């Protein structure tokens, strides 16, 4: 059975969807590349309707799952606040940058299974960060990675083995970050560390050392 395509969107307290256009663009591109049917107009309509119908005032997480045949489902849940200090942990296991599905957000993510099982029991660790077979930094299991080097923010290029996140695309397009191959050693010499995803934005983190 083919994996489902995933888009996870932030619904703000006023029920807006800040990155909806980027999510729909990425979904359509992934569907075309992987031969999935995708009725973008219908999906946008139903996402907007689901967001408008949410109760309460707190931010919400909205998750869209698209099957190969074009069927889709939408699920929502409150977005819990994070602790003030968030850390990252470097995974001991490398990714294979040649794996094509790293570039698409699907339900088939076996390379992140251990991280997904481990992270809920360690709430102070926001994400586990991965490197590839060449020792180059890739991404977190649920976020993109950024390092501040000599006053400039950098994020690894997709070719290193990572998902091109929608918040990452926004930061690149607005000139706040640039792409650059980053080595594992750069983690400790960086002047700052940040992660981003569509739910949490662009956030400062620290490196957890045992």
TrEMBL record:
Record key words, sorted: Aminotransferase, Transferase
Source species, domain of life: Bacteria
Keyword Nucleus: no
This enzyme's EC code(s): 2.6.1.42
First-tier enzyme category under EC: transferase
UniProt cross-references to InterPro entries, sorted A to Z: Aminotrans_IV (IPR001544), Aminotransferase-like (IPR036038), BCAT-like_C (IPR043132), BCAT-like_N (IPR043131)
GO molecular function, one term: branched-chain-amino-acid transaminase activity
Name of this protein: Aminotransferase
Annotated organism of origin: Bordetella pseudohinzii
């Amino acid at each position: 059975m083919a994996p489902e395509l995933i888009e996870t969107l932030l619904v703000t307290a006023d029920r807006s969807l800040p990155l909806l256009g980027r999510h729909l663009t990425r979904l359509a591109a992934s569907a075309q590349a992987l031969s999935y049917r995708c009725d973008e107009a219908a999906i946008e309509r139903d996402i907007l309707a689901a967001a408008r119908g949410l109760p309460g005032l707190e931010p919400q997480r909205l998750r869209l799952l698209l099957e190969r045949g074009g069927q889709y489902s939408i699920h929502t849940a409150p977005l819990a606040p994070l602790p003030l200090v968030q850390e990252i942990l470097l995974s001991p296991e490398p990714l294979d940058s040649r794996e094509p599905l790293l570039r698409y957000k699907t339900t088939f993510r076996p390379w992140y299974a251990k991280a997904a099982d481990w992270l809920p029991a360690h709430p102070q660790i926001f994400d586990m960060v991965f490197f590839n077979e060449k020792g180059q930094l890739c991404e977190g299991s649920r976020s993109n990675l950024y390092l501040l080097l000599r006053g400039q923010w950098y994020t690894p290029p997709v070719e290193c083995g990572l998902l091109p996140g929608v918040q990452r695309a926004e930061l690149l397009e607005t000139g706040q970050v640039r792409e650059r191959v980053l080595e594992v050693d750069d983690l400790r010499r960086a002047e700052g560390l940040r992660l981003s995803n569509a739910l949490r934005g662009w956030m400062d983190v620290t490196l957890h050392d045992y």
